[in-house]
Amino acid sequence: MVGNYKVITLCGSTRFKDEFMAAQKRLMLEGNIVISVGLFGHSGDHEVWEGMSEDTLTQTKLMLDDMHKHKIDMADEIFVINVGGYIGSSTRSEIEYAKATGKVVKYLEE
Question: What's the pTM value of the predicted model, to 2 decimals?
Fold first, then answer.
């Protein structure tokens, strides 16, 4: 299958960095284009947030949430990293957005 790739955006809490990386590798090797998060704010990348004012932090988080919705727009489906069944409010919002825009939603754990 060359050239006909499904696009999948990963969603979930950034505390699950290892699971994000494992899912990204597996889905890519299955022949998918995978779009993931750019920062792991809950499990690394702390240097990004250090020294940021509250206002800048709030604006940056809003920007990243908006960017992720655009990543969902580019995808055929989303794959939710829901370790232990955990789905936070941000991820829940992304799932609702994906469903509202007609995307297929799949989960790491049912």
Answer: 0.88
